[in-house]
Protein 1
Amino acid sequence: MRFSLFIHMERWDDAISEEQHWANLVELVQLAEAGGFGTVWIGEHHSMEYTASPNPMPQLAYLAAKTSTIHLGAGTIIAPFWSPIRAAGETALLDVISGGRAELGVARGAYQFEFNRMAGGMPAADGGKYLRELVPAVRKLWEGDYAHDGELWQFPVSTSVPKPVQKPTPPIWVAARTPETHEFAIANRCNVQVTPLMKGDEEVQDLKNKFDEARKNHADADFTPQIMVLRHTYVHSPEEPEGWRAGAAGISKFYRTFSAWAFGKKDPDNGFLEPMPEENFAERPEFELENIRRNSVIGTPDEVIERVRGYEEMGYDEYSFWTDNSMTHAEKKRSLQLFIDHVVPQFAN
C-alpha cells in the first residue's frame, strides 16, 4: 500500500491570508514527504475559496523546488477547461522542472457552478466526452508530432513542448465512478482514482469491483493499472476518546459547504459561501457525526490502521489521505503526524 496526500488551500473566511494558507499547505506537503508519502495531489477548482486552486500546475511546480522525492500529481484537471496541447505541455514542463515526478489526473468535472463560468453553461454531465477525447490526445502529443481532428478539438500537426522526462510518458489517472469510465481508463492505459465521498466501505468495495471487472475485460493488455482510494482522514490520540468528534465536525462542515456550492441557490460573496445549516440535513443520516465517523477514516492510530488494512485487502494500491476539512492547520498537522508515526510504518514494504 502506497500513501499520498490530497490537499488544497482552504479559506473559510478572511481570518488567515492567502499567503499563510499557502505556507501551511507547503508545510504539510513537506511533512508528508519526510513521512514516506509517495505523491501529493492538488486539484482544480474555480472561484471557490474553500478549495482555492485555479490551476494545480504552478502550485506543483513551486512544490517541486521545495521537495526532492515526492511525486507531484494534478488531481485532477477538469477536462473541458483544457485543450490537449495545453494539458500535455504544462504537465511535461512540470515533469522537466521536477526531474520526472509529474503525474496527471483527469476528471470530467462536477460543479455546475464552475461550468457556468468556465464553459458557457455547458451541462457538467457532458464533461465525460471531453475527458475521453483529451486523454488519448495528450498521450499522442507526448509521443511526438500529432494532428487531431476530433469532435471537440481540432488542430494541425503539433507536439508537446517540452517533452516529459518520464518514459514512455508520465502516469495518467482517471477519476472514475461508473463502469464505463473504469473501462475507458484501463483501455487507454490509465490508472484509476476513486472516492466514495460520504459513503462507507461498501461503496469502496463496489468501486473496486467495477475496476476489477474492467481489468477482467482487458486481461490481455500489457499494462497493469493501479487504483487509488481517496478518503477524508483524521487521526486522534488514544488519550482523547472523544477526539473523533472534532474530525467529524470538520468533515461535516466541508460537505455542508460542498452542498451549498453544488446544490444551493445563493450567490457567493467574494468567493465565499456559508455552509448549509445543519438543520437542512436532519433527514440525511449520512450527516450525523457518528455516521461521518463510521464512513470517513476517523479514529485512533489503531482504528485507522484497521481501516486502511481493509483497503489493502480489497486490493487498493494507493491510499490518499484527504486533508480537506474545516479544521485548523495545527489540528491537520497533528493528525498527519500521527498517521506518519503510527500508520505508515505498518504498511512499509
Protein 2
Amino acid sequence: MNNFLQAAQESVTYVFCDVNGLHETNSKFGHEAGDRMLIALASELAKSFGQDMSFRFGGDEFLAIALDERLDKVQAKRYFLT
C-alpha cells in the first residue's frame, strides 16, 4: 500500500468487493460455477482498473485501486458490480 501512496500525486481510491451468493452458487451449481463467478469479477475489475491494480485477497473478496482519478470516474467504474 505504501507504494501506491507514494505513486499517487493527489489521491488513492480503494474499492472493496465481496461476491454475494458465492456459497449458495457453490452449493446449488457446484464449485465450477462459483469459480466462474470469481473469474468474471476478476476480469471486470482488471478491465476497469487494470490488472496491476486489481487484487483478490480472500475467498470472495477483491480490492481495486485507482490513483489520481476523480471520484465520479471511479464510481462509474464500480457500477458494473451492483
Protein 3
Amino acid sequence: MKLTLDPGAAALLDTLHAAGYAAYAVGGCVRDSLLGRTAHDWDLCTSALPQQVMELFGAEQCIPTGLQHGTVTIKYGGQLYETTTFRTEGSYTDGRHPDEVQFVPDVREDLARRDFTINAIAYNEAEGLVDPFGGQKDLQNGLLRAVGEPQQRFTEDALRILRLYRFAARFGFALDAATARAARQLAPHLDCISAERIQEELAKLLTAPQPGAYLEPAVLAVVLPELTPAALDAAKPVVDACPAGEKNLPVRWAALLRSLGESATRRVLKRLRCSNVCIEETAVLVRETAGEGVCRSFSEDRPLGWDPAAVGSRAGDGMARLVSEEKASAHPGDIHLRQILGRYGLCTVERLCALCAALHPQNAPDCALAAQRARQLEADGVCCRVSQLAVNGRDLMAAGIPAGPALRRVLEALLDGVIHAEYPNEKPALLAAAQKIIAS
C-alpha cells in the first residue's frame, strides 16, 4: 500500500535514508492516513541516534526536545517534525514514564513498546507498511487493541487507559475484550496521573461524536468520583445528544456534570485544572438549566411574529422572518431571550439552546427556533444590553441625573423598559422615562 506523505516528512525521510539510516513515518499520521483522514502531526522514527540527527540537519534546524529519550524536533518548511530514535523502554516506576530507554536498530522493537496496534504502524515509500501487530486489520475491523499484553501496557502507563476510550470514541471503534477488561481492572491506577492530563484526555473524549458508550463507569469512578453511577447513566444520552466538537465542550461538560449543581460543577472542573473560561461557561449552563430553568422559556414561549413555517425563507441566512419586531419584543419568551442574550452573549445562548434540546428532545425544534431568533436579534442589533441603549451615562448626567450607583440603576431600568416595549429605544423617550424613574 502506498500512502501520500507530507512533503516535509518525505524530504526528511529521504535525507535520513541518503545518510544510511533507517527511517519511517510512524504512529498517528500513518493511522490517520490509512483511515483516509488528514494527518496533522507527522512523527518520524529512525535508527539514527539523536546526536547523529542533529549533526545531519544542523543545530539551527534542530530542537533537542528530549535527547535522553531519543527525541529531536526538526524544523523544516515552517513545520515541526518530532523525530525519535528506535528504542525500547525499561520499567515504569511511577506508572507514567519509563525509568530508562535503550536505543535499538530495529523499528519492530520500537513498535512493540507502543500502546495500541493502530498506533504501532510505520511507513516509508521503499518498504511500505511495517505492521507487525496487525494494526491495519484492526483499523479495517474498527477494533482498538493493545499491543502485546494489555495488563503490561496499562501498568506501564495508566494514562493509556484514558487514551483507550478517547481513541475508541474518536473513531467509533469497538474495544478488544481483553484490552477493555484490563482497562477496567487497572482503572484505580489512574490516581497517579496528574489532573491536567486527565482533563486533557476527558476533554478529547467528550468532544468526540458519540462519547456516551465510552464513558466507562470503572474509569469515571476514579477520575470523576463525584458523579454517581446513576447520574452517569442518566447523563450519557444527554451528552450524546449535544453537538460535538471543541467549541461545544462546555455543553458536554454541563450535560455530564449537571446533576451535581453549579457549585460542585465548579469544584470538579477546578480540580481538573480546566480553564477559567470553560469553568465559568459550564457553570452558567448548569445554573440556567437547573429545574425548569431557561429550557421552559425556549420550548413554551414563542415570540409573537416568529413564524416557524418561514424558517429558511429568508435568502442567505436561513432565518425565520420577523412579522412585527415591536410586538414580538413584549412577548414573555422574547423578553427572556433578549435578557439572557444581553447577559451572556450569543455563543452562550446557542449553547443553552443546544443543551436544552439535548435535555428535552421533544422540544428540540423550539430550541432550534430560539437559537435562530437569538442570531437574528444579534444580527439586527435589537437592544439587549445597556450599551445598545440610545442614551448613555453622559446623556443622563447632562439631563441632571447625578453620577453614582443611581445612574447605573436608571440605565438598567431603561433597558428593562425597552425590552418590555414600555417605550422605544429613542433618545427623547428614554430621557423622559429616566426623569420619571428618578422621580418615582
Protein 4
Amino acid sequence: MFQYKDDWKCMKGMHRQSAGIYRAAMRILVDSGARLVIRGVHVGQLQERYREHAHNPHQVSLQHCLERVNMIAEQERDDVSIMADKVADQAAQEGQIARYQLIGNTEGYFPSDLARIKMPFQWEDSRMLYGLQMIDMALFMCGRASGIDSAKKLNDGDKAVLKIVDVIRPAIMPQSAVWYPLEKRTDYGFLTKLS
C-alpha cells in the first residue's frame, strides 16, 4: 500500500488518506484483542557474528518469536496453534521448530522446548486473510518506526508512521523487540537496541 502498487495505485499521492486507512486497520487489530509479539534480527550483524554458520534470518526471527509466544502460553497454561504467512522454505522453517521440540531445546539466549506450540503450522497467503494482512501491516509500520532517527527533524511521513505505531502500541506484548540502530527512543519504548 505504501508503494502504491497493484490495487493501491489509485491512492498514489493521497498520503493522508493512506495513513488514515492504516490507522483505521490498526485500530481494528487492537480492538480485536490481538496481542503482538515482534522479534527481529539485524541481518548484517547475524552474518558478521556467525559467518558461514549463520542461520536464515527469517528462521532466527521465527525461533525467537516462538520462544516468547511459548513463554506466554506456559504462563497461561494454554497451547498455541500457529498460522503464518507462506514463505518459500516453509517446510524447512517448520522442520527446524519440530527438531527443537524433539531435542527439547532451542539454540540461543532463551532456550525453550516450545512444548506449547502445536504442530503442524498452518501456512496461508496473507493476501487472502485479513488478520494476516493486518499483522503484516503492523510489522511494516513497526519496522519503519524503528528506522526513524529521533535526533533529526521528523518529516510528515515519519510523523504519520509514529502516529500509526501509537495506535498499535497497546497490542504489542512486552516480550517484543525490534532492532534499532540509533539511540533508544524514550517515547517508543518497545523499540529496543539489541547488542
